Amino acid sequence: MYDTEVAVVGGGAAGLSLAHRLCDAPAGVRRPEVTVVDAPPGPLRPPERTWCYWERPDGEYDRVLAASWERLRVHGADGIALTGRPEPLRYKMMRSGAFEELVGERLAAAPSAHRMTAVVEDVRALPDGAEVHGVTAAGAPVRLRARWVFDSRPLPALPPARTTLLQHFHGWFVRTERPEFDPATADLMDFRTPQPSHGLSFGYVLPLTPHEALVEYTEFSAAPLCEAAYHRALRHYLAEVRPLGPYRVTASEQGVIPMTDARFPRSAGPGVFRIGAAGGATRPSTGYTFAAVQRQTRAIAAAFHQGRTPVPPPPHSARSRLMDAVLLRALDSGRIDGADFFTGLFRGVPMERLLRFLDGGTRMREDLSIGLHTPVLPMLRTVAELPRLRRRPSRVKNAVPTARPTAAPAPNRKRPSDDAPPV
Question: Which helix (H) or strand (E) holds 333?
Fold first, then answer.
């Protein structure tokens, strides 16, 4: 006897997307009873964060986008800028709060959808399903039995890998006194930042209005920086690389995304599956996750509605994972210069094709042509080396992006510390 047919653990992008798709079946198709178990407000529930992805206009979440851009710009370390239109694609930005509100409204209108709040402590596989064990905010025990459980909680540790780098970043939402930004053009990668001795760094500017933008400093490297170092990097970027007039910081966000060639198991038992980043949805070479989550949850729901076992498919193809493993190893070994590598791709490959490539949507012939715009000999040497490398346990904790508000302090005449956001 089941309490619910499907239990979804976690109410983030993966959990809510799957619950909505399961309950949004075509006419005449049976809709399962779905229960979403979300953590109560507190440390286990991440604060609002930013998700970016690219797709054609008129997407299913377009009405809650924070912004979208028809033009993308990449600055090489040499200062030369490339601006292109990835038509018919657009680069889109959405805040997690807007997404959760939209999908929450859709679930509230679905008779077969239910939501509950609890800290999930364990998911136990049973011969004919699984059982979710947890505790409410008031301390009451929770036990929920389901035929299928889809768990989107972050893994406590990353699986063994040959290479693991971190994409770590710190961003400021800034508001300027003068119009400083072009709302139609996003700076996807600006490599005019000082490059670390091992890895790469770049600036990232997403304009919201002529006076507002999200400005981030990002590194691919082995370890994150301290907060003061991120502040110094952002101050340098906004003073020396992309100078702004007077501005103030209205909010900030930071995060750490593992970029790894680890194999993420998608099953934790006969009726227990992992989805989202925990199921390998993060693209190892870029850190993007949202688009893969949508593909993964769409495929799971389709399998269920067609009467098949709803096993999550691999979020990325075997060919994409191999190419990502080669790139990560080449970056980590220092065989290629990361800034030159990505700049060369954007300068040599049509932008629409390159974005499809980064999303795993290109054919093998297109992949081979794109490969000719990379340092061929170092990449081939890395391909030959990969089979000899052992997968080792990672020392990196599985991390997800976080965001937090920055209160605007009262005006004052003192010069802020270099380790604090400007006001």
Answer: helix 318-333
Q: Which of 17, 33, 232, 206 is nearest to 103 (CA)?
A: 17
The CA–CA distances, whole Å, from 223 to 58, 229, 262 equal 38, 13, 18
3-class DSSP state of 347: helix
User: What is the token pair recorded at 194?
Assistant: 């000082």
Q: Model pTM?
A: 0.91
Measured distance CA(321)–CA(184) in Å, rounded: 32
Peptide bond into 387 cis (omega under 30): no
Q: Amino acid identity, residue 192? A: R
Residue 387, CA distances (Å) to 101, 160, 162, 246 in order? 46, 15, 10, 53
CB 277 within 8 A of CB 158: no
Check if the beta carbon of residue 423 is closer than 8 Å to that of residue 248.
yes
Q: Is residue 70 a contact partner of residue 85, using CB atoms and an 8 Å limit?
A: yes
Across the strands, what pairs with 255?
169
Identify which of 249, 271, 247, 136 has the alpha carbon closest to the alpha carbon of residue 181: 247
First to last CA, the chain: 59
401 pLDDT above the threshold of 90: no
Rounded to an integer, what distance in angstroms lies between the CA atom of residue 291 and that of residue 51?
10
Q: How confident is the model over 147-202, as pLDDT tens digits?
A: 999 999 999 899 999 999 999 999 999 999 999 999 999 999 999 999 998 889 99
